[in-house]
Each structure stands twice: as C-alpha cells, then as structure tokens.
Amino acid sequence: MLVIFDCDGVLVDSETLANRILARHLRLHGVPLDEQAVMAQFKGRSAAGCVQHMQRWMSAEQAHACWQQLQTETLQALRQVQPVPGVMAVLATLRAAGRPFCVASSGDHEKMAVTLSASGIEAAFQPVRFSVTQVDKPKPAPDVFLLAAREMGVHAGPMCGGGRYPHGGAGRGGGGDAGILVRW
Question: pTM above 0.85?
Fold first, then answer.
C-alpha cells in the first residue's frame, strides 16, 4: 500500500496563513472577500486555477501581477509553518512499517520545498514530491495521484481518498482532508 499525502492542510499547517495573505491582496485590489470566503473559493486550486479565478474581479494582467506579489510574501511567511499536529507520528509509523509514502500537491515544487523544510519534514519526502505542475489536469482530477503512483512503482488500482474539493470532481469527499491511499 502506497500512502499519498496532500501537502497544505494535511502535512503542513499552511492554508490559514496563505489564505490570509491572499485575502489581504484581493482587498487591496478592491475584491471584498474575507479569509473565510477566500478559503471557500480558492482552497484546493492550483496557482493557475487561482489566477484564473481572480479574473472574475480583475483583468488577466492584474490577476497575474497580484499573484506574483502575494506569492513572494506567501513564500516568505511560509518559512514559519509548522507540521499538522500528529503528522510526525504518522510518518514515523509508516517508516517503521516499511510503507512507502509521498506527497502530491496542488502547490508547485518551490512552495513544497519551503513548507516541508520549515516544518522539518522535507527529508521524509526527498525525492518523492509530485505537483500538479507536472500534469495536465489539476486536482480534483486524479492526474497528480496517478503520476505519484506510477513514479513510486505502484499500479494505481482502486483508489480511495479524502479531502474537500469545493470545486467539484471525483476527488470530492466528506469530512476533512486526508491522505490518498492507493491499494494494489
């Protein structure tokens, strides 16, 4: 059994911080969304998906410029991120059991490197990190999970997963974020 973790909100406690910064930058551009509204509308989206969504309120050029500004601030702020409570014990248990695991994220490799390093768990995921930037379709499409399974040498048979993807799709699940289990 291969365990595939999402990164933000599952391994590292980064979502609140990142969404706070996004909400502030959107307000600076005249978009009156608070942090809860930003979380509801942007959670689970790739960077490209966020920029596209921002175009509801501003031009493509403005959305890209806003995203670049907030990404610089976000990456700096994420250097303070902590692991999600209990994740270190889960990783230790998986290692002790000899179970392979990896991370498949909507974030890019730079963001994963920052958050995993800051949280002290980067070494556990070298070189087993996969990003939606490596596939055609972002989450909730299964492409990044299928890539992770293939690269980890696992036949991606039946999958079950957990997570909240408010934007619909096959990845939509019930209660809270969780890792994705690939069974063979």
Answer: no
